Amino acid sequence: MIELRDFRVFADLKKDDLEKLSSMIRHIDYGADELIFMEGAPAFGFYLVFSGAVKVVKRSAKGKSQILKIVGPGGMLGETTLFDKTVHNAYAKTLVPSKVGFIERGDFFYFLERHPKVIFRFFERLSLELKAFQNKLAERSYASSKERLARLILALGKLGIELSRGELAEMAGVSSKTAIRTLGELESRGIIALENRKIKILKEDYLKRLVEPFSLPVDSSTII
Predict the structure, then answer these.
(1) Is the dihedral of CA 217, 219, 223, 224 positive or negative?
(2) What is the pLDDT of residues 40-61, one digit of tens each?
């Protein structure tokens, strides 16, 4: 499990300031596949992921799901509603047992008034995430299903996160049938090995050559 000082947005804080901020955080332990917040629910603050992994999912009116991002230790959840004070536009659910910290909006704003440098760090991260989503939108236009899946396999491997084939399809924006067929092809060619939910990368260089040079990373904690 990481500590508060390991979060990039709080990198400029001194020890005493970190302790003040830490006193505002309510730590919550979640099991695997537990809901942290619901889509459409009022947002009263934001969350910090100290351990585990969480998926943020948008559901359409017809019931289709799209995984927007996966957040690991050092990442944030619900931060997009912090300043506009609206409802959550997606839901967050744990992939594995996770420890999450919640900071109430009013407490955090009180802290920001006294530590304005954190605001710049906060907006820096939001800006990086916005650029990553813009690049992912472009990726959807002219990257093949195989290229999109290859990028995700590489990113998930770095964080050690396992997804089902259905979840991988949701995140890549392809059908489950396409994901299963593509993964089967990569396995038959000895590029990856499949064992239940686990994808073992056997030929990383091949996958890297498949991937278009989109700049999608926000930081080491987040996959988009």
Answers:
(1) negative
(2) 999 999 999 999 999 999 988 7
